[in-house]
Amino acid sequence: MMASSRSLLLPLALLSASAVFPVAAQVAAQDPEEEVVVTARRSGAPMWTIETPSGVVLLVGEITNVPQTAPWRPERLEAAAAGAQRIVLGTKAKVSPGDILRLIFKGGKLTKLPDKGVAADYLDAKRLARLQALETRYGQSYDRRNFLMTAFDLLSKRLAFSKDTTDDATDVVRKSARRADVPTRPVGEVRGEDMLDNLFAAAPASHLPCLDAAMSAAEIGPDIVTARGKAWTSFDVPAVMTNPLETALGRCWPWTDGSFGPALRGQWIDAIGEAMAQPGVTLAVVPLRVLAEQDGVLDQLERRGLPVEGPAWRVAR
């Protein structure tokens, strides 16, 4: 397979070679692995490749809720997915009807602070003043609300980061794989019951880092939503990782949970190792924060001496 460092030169190479070496050009044009990689890279989503003796692993760094103002081309990722030999997507939550009923009848434990508590019972004076200032700005009352729910309200409703968005990379790839009959599997599975147990058992104080980050994002305002999307499509991964919105999302449950967080990350290392032993192209859609965080998947792969090629991901420290 052609080296990834030459991928961007492929169109020009084919154009010039076809006039002199038509047979060679035809062979190059029929390289299906290279075609998938080049097409995927032209989508505008940041991604990394690991070449193996028998194929390539393509890691697409996903952020959720890409704004429509971010100029990416999901149809090209769709085309690449259709040409892959296999697809790996994120963790699948197995939710039963019982889990849904439990959430309906006991959801109050998730939405409100326990034992009729109020924010002042948990927050120091500085945090409380910040929260009250946001209540005044948005005309909301967060006094009795669970801190995780408050954080989600600040991010999803007040910053409106989930409004006017395009399809996420996972949705694009899943639909394409289904149409093209490409084998697809989740990187892992988690039971809805386990997730609910974990969430119900979480102490209010465990959500304070999430609340702090969400308040910081809300205090800055909606410009960070656009900036995050544009940094993603510009392959400026450090700018995405340090964006206050992305920071807040990464500091909230389940990513910061001591049991779920490490498991969610460890599954990807195992899946990538398995994919490297497979022929052809494995296309994996991985949360960008899992790939690019300090000691994340990309750092771990590089420490193992694997040839990871793609945009710079480390945040300057």
Structure summary:
The protein has helices spanning 10-20, 22-29, 32-41, 74-83, 97-106, 108-111, 125-138, 147-158, 169-180, 192-201, 208-220, 223-233, 237-242, 244-250, 260-275, 288-292, 297-303; strands at residues 47-52, 55-62, 86-89, 92-94, 184-186, 189-191, 280-287, 308-309. The protein is of the alpha/beta class and 317 residues long. It has one domain (47-309).
Plain-language structure description:
With 317 residues, the chain is an alpha/beta fold. It has one domain (47-309). It is built from 17 helices and 8 strands. It has helices at 10-20, 22-29, 32-41, 74-83, 97-106, 108-111, 125-138, 147-158, 169-180, 192-201, 208-220, 223-233, 237-242, 244-250, 260-275, 288-292, 297-303; strands at 47-52, 55-62, 86-89, 92-94, 184-186, 189-191, 280-287, 308-309. The protein has a 6-stranded mixed sheet, sandwiched between helices. It has a two-stranded parallel sheet with strand order 4-6. Strand 1 (47-52) and strand 2 form a beta hairpin. The longest helix has 16 residues, at 260-275. It is globular, with a radius of gyration of 22 Å. Residues 1-29 have low confidence and may be disordered.
